[in-house]
Amino acid sequence: MNWDDTLAEIVRDEGGWQEIVYLDPLITSVDFPNGTPTVGPGLLIKPGYEVPFQALTVWTNCRFRLCIESVHRFEAIYKISLDSVRRAVVAGMIWNMGFRGICKFKKMIGALQVEDYDKAADEIIDSNTHRKLAAIRDQAVFDGQKWWPVRTDQWADRMKDGEPL
């Protein structure tokens, strides 16, 4: 066995493999008093750490596939059939909030089930997610920073009119 194989075996055996980000209590700091966010075989995830482009590409592609699968699961569970624009809105919501996050939009889901897209759009705007993003935007504008449109506004517009951006 060569050194590379030995090192890989040591890392796997000692660090384990976690697919969910966890706090490593062995590495604490002022920013992370309860432990540093860690994933995989003990890889730290901290502001300023550089992640290789290839790793980001693989990770993003996996998330794309998971998001697409989640959209299909969402439509199947709630017995909803969406056109491509509204399906893209649901995909954006799942990408940003996760499957569990979008499932909390009970009134929006009910509106989608009866194809009431105006009501579904209203429920996107009348959400904690929208209020948080709008507050961040408002503070940035107040501070003189350049800002981009709030994605929940875009989702609501596309949900309502069925037109792509």
UniProtKB/TrEMBL annotation:
- Mention one GO molecular function: lysozyme activity
- Keywords per UniProt: Antimicrobial, Bacteriolytic enzyme
* Gene Ontology terms: biological process: defense response to bacterium; killing of cells of another organism
Spell out the protein name for this chain: Uncharacterized protein
